[in-house]
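Subject: mismatched residue count in predicted assembly?

I count 322 residues in my input, but I want to confirm that the predicted structure covers every chain. Input:
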Amino acid sequence: MAATDSEPSLFSAWSYFQTQPPPPTLEDDVAGRGPGRKVALVTSGGTTVPLELNVVRFLDNFSAGTRGATSAEYFLKAGYAVIFMHRQFSLQPFSRHYSHSTNPFLDFLEIETDPEGTSADAARPKITATPSDNPACSTTLTFVTVNDYLWLLRAVSQELSVVGRNALYYLAAAVSDFFLPRQKLSEHKIQSGKGSLLIEMDQVPKILKPLVDEWTPDGFIVSFKLETDPALLIPKARAALERYGHHLVIGNNLNQRKHEVVFVSRRNRGSAVSDVDAHWLRIPTDAVDARGQPKEIEEDIVAELAKRHQAWIDQSWSQHPG
Ligand code: PAZ
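Triage response: the counts match. Full output below for your records.
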């Protein structure tokens, strides 16, 4: 019978779902297995450690947020939804190209240079995309202090745990190892006049442990390790893998971090941490990308991670379907 000839039916919500077919992708969407549902939580920039409750002085970290902001762009290009959790006023994806600007609309634009390289402005990036071209599925969160960072990371990772294996954690923020607990903070500005200032700081708890074991047990977790002594890089990365049991540590030395990083991981999931694979990614200092722009190592880091993350999702599903 043609639709126009039929009596209008009265559906209750119950009868609707009893009689109408679900879309074919529903199960995957809900389980977080859909192709567009991979999510990267990118942390970026340094944390501060206030020395007073009414903050006049604080300790800070060198990080400008370049690694995180650049990587977030490549995650978006690789089809990830991105939660960009960054230090307030540190570099942000896309607008990092225009560091003088505070225009939030730049967050939604893609940037390209003159492909011919002929115009007088050839070296200057130009905006070619509209907001609708950019994945709308990205969010920005900000922190300032190490305390903000820890609370935010816990809350976001607990929320994100619903995405299960499709969540990738890219922990590039430079998080202070030491802090002053609130109970030890002076309420008012620390006064001079008593000679030198001695401050004893407590160690920041090792947040990766509960992240891996409790908050987001199915997430694919990548931490960064920064060193200035190259001899320490791989041993410290290995120790982090052993201590926290996560998937991967990306090691970088302060002065070479834009040109080389090392991926340190277990050879096989579950194998002893003494049996690690150290995979170096290097780009020449004068490398250029397909558009003739200086190449960014984050492009290769994210490509390698997207491959490993997908392989891990596929492997997990073949071992534990559903
Ligand atoms: O932000 P940036 O590009 O200047 O520096 C990036 C980085 C060195 C902070 C990052 O790659 C990193 O190693 N983060 C972890 C630092 C650590 O806590 O060991």
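Confidence is low (pLDDT under 50) at residues 119-136. Marking this ticket as 'not a bug'.
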